[in-house]
């Protein structure tokens, strides 16, 4: 029996299928009874779920990244369709013949196309030192496999397989225009900053069964991990070059990685202090924030409303306005 698309569920529909637990939160109601808030995924999308009056043993029987056999009923609450779960149990997807990767969201653009675009930007570098540094990363098959699969974030922008790669390529595209408008900015250095600014996320985030933070990611973070990864490549870079890597160039790259969040309160230990670092911070913010806003408008479940739901993180709603006419709608028949 084919799996029903989650987008087609209507209030009252019954669900009996296997889902990936994308996130899990244990909470207590006003009477102190334990309940679970889940974000469940299947190959067609994701949906929120509630499990009321659970025992601690049931709550402890699974974690994010596990697979559950779920029986539930769809209901409409707070402007969205969600599941109220009556039964769940942890299952092994391999025993059921399921591919865990099929349950993870994927970039809308082909990974092969994005990887080709990344290589094209890096091939265009004129600086031999910067080109050798990038080659040292591209020659590492294990790194490249992770870099092209990891999301840019767990829940915010580009939260899907290949999301980091898509984010980096978008930033590189913007950086090329910046280089044309501002010739004082070192285009090669800015492109390399776009490539490496989030490189530490290949160690910060896990992506094989759901998206979550690794222990290393929680304790160290991708800014520090990114600097460490650059330093680890230096012996190979120097062998490729046949000479030492320029100390000031290395310093500028480390500074871009450490300062790209832009402000101390957002995790950067240093403020951007070079033209390339300033540009990198704003390119990162532009692509990530615009991507998140467009996704929020596109995925808003209340299609009849001209506004998205209120987002407490951003302290606002977004205006959707009227839906654009369908192709051909409103055109005069000239025959």
Automatic annotation (TrEMBL):
UniProt keywords, alphabetically: Hydrolase
Signal peptide as annotated in the record: none
Pfam family, one: HD
Gene3D superfamilies: Hypothetical protein af1432
Domain HD/PDEase: 160-298
Coiled coil location: none
Skewed-composition ranges (Basic and acidic residues): 303-313
Segments for region (Disordered): 303-335
BP GO annotations: rRNA 3'-end processing
Gene Ontology molecular function terms on file: hydrolase activity; nucleic acid binding
Organism superkingdom: Bacteria
UniProt-listed InterPro entries: HD/PDEase_dom, HD_domain, HDIG_dom, NA-bd_OB_tRNA, YhaM_exoribonuc/phosphodiest
NCBIfam families named among the record's database cross-references: HDIG
UniProt name for this protein: Metal dependent phosphohydrolase
Organism: Isosphaera pallida (strain ATCC 43644 / DSM 9630 / IS1B)
């Amino acid at each position: 029996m084919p799996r029903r698309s989650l987008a087609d569920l209507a209030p009252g529909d019954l669900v009996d299928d296997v889902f990936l637990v994308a996130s899990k939160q244990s909470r207590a109601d006003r009477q102190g009874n334990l309940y679970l808030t889940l974000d469940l995924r299947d190959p067609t999308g994701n949906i929120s779920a509630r499990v009321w009056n659970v025992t601690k043993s049931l709550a402890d029987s699974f974690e994010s990244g596990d697979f559950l056999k779920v029986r539930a009923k769809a209901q409409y609450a707070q402007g969205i369709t969600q599941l109220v779960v009556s039964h769940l149990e942890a299952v092994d997807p391999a025993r059921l013949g399921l591919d865990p990767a099929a349950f993870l969201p994927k970039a809308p653009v082909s990974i092969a196309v994005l990887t080709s675009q990344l290589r094209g930007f890096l091939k265009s570098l004129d600086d031999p030192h910067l080109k050798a540094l990038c080659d040292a990363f591209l020659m590492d098959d294990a790194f490249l496999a992770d870099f092209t699969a990891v999301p840019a974030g767990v829940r915010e922008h580009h939260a899907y397989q290949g999301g980091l790669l898509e984010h980096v390529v978008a930033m590189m595209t913007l950086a090329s225009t910046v280089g044309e408008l501002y010739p004082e900015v070192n285009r090669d250095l800015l492109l390399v900053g776009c490539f490496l600014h989030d490189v530490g996320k290949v160690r910060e985030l896990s992506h094989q069964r759901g998206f979550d933070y690794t222990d290393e990611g929680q304790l160290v973070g991708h800014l520090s991990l990114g600097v460490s990864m650059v330093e680890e490549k230096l012996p190979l870079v120097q062998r490729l070059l046949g000479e030492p890597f320029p100390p000031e160039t290395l310093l500028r790259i480390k500074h871009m990685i450490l300062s790209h969040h832009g402000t101390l309160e957002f995790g950067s230990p240093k403020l951007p202090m070079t033209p390339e670092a300033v540009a990198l911070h704003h390119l990162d913010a532009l692509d990530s924030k615009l991507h998140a806003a467009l996704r929020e408008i596109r995925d808003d479940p209340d299609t009849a409303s001209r506004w998205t739901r209120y987002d407490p993180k951003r302290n606002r709603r977004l205006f959707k306005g009227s839906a654009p006419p369908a192709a051909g709608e409103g055109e005069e028949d000239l025959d």
